[in-house]
Structure to design on (191 residues):
């Protein structure tokens, strides 16, 4: 998918340019490594997959949001200077026309704006390339970087699901954040 337009953050700093590239099985090793990072495991209910199982899954996802034969879509986040820095996904419900987003940036590349730039681009693409009318994210309570991203992009906190995910032996509450098509301003962050 196309490179990010000149997204800017709340202080009007330009966000890093990123591009979304459809995931293929050979990307699984990098993502599998990111899935082992303690901060990622602490907040996310990953299925316990081997690398081979993850590669099979990566070969079965869609990349073109106009193709309703797929429900799960995944892309790698690519920075021209660095290479692959993370991954983003959408799980679409084509009957309800909503999609749940997911995103991860490798710890090594965290805190540089890649997460926000990637999610901003994902929203652009989702609303431009599909008929989805709503995107939402479920975020473990306490995952402040993740919450900061969606709030800065104009998502609304719609509620909190109590003890919704069992992660690493703990039941965690989940914030639900939603964004409607009419609330999104392509290529720019809300003031
Ligand atoms: C959440 C995640 C994608 C953020 O990626 P990132 O590239 O580091 O995010 P950004 O650099 O765009 O920063 C986003 C915001 O988080 C803030 N932030 C970073 N670390 C933080 C921390 N420990 N506490 C509070 N805020 C923090 C940043 O300052 C920034 O906000 P600001 O611009 O208002 O200062 C990344 O940490 C990650 O992949 N985590 C594991 C997977 C995950 O939890 N994904 C989300 C699933 S819902």
């Amino acid at each position: 998918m196309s490179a990010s337009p000149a997204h800017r953050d709340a202080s009007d700093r330009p966000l890093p340019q990123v591009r979304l590239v459809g995931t293929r099985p050979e990307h699984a090793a990098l993502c599998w490594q990111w899935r082992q990072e303690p901060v990622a495991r602490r907040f996310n209910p990953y299925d316990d997959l081997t690398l081979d199982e993850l590669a099979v899954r990566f070969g079965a996802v869609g990349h073109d949001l106009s193709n309703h034969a797929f429900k799960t879509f995944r892309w790698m986040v690519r920075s021209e200077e660095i290479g692959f820095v993370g991954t983003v996904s959408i799980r679409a419900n084509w009957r309800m026309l909503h999609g749940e987003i997911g995103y991860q940036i490798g710890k090594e590349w965290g805190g540089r704006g890649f997460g926000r730039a990637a999610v901003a681009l994902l929203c652009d693409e989702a609303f431009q390339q599909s008929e989805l009318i709503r995107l939402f994210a479920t975020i473990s309570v306490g995952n402040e970087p993740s919450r900061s991203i969606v709030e800065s992009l104009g998502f609304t906190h719609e509620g909190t699901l109590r003890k919704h995910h069992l992660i690493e032996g703990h039941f965690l509450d989940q914030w639900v954040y939603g964004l409607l098509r009419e609330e999104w301003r392509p290529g720019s962050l809300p003031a």
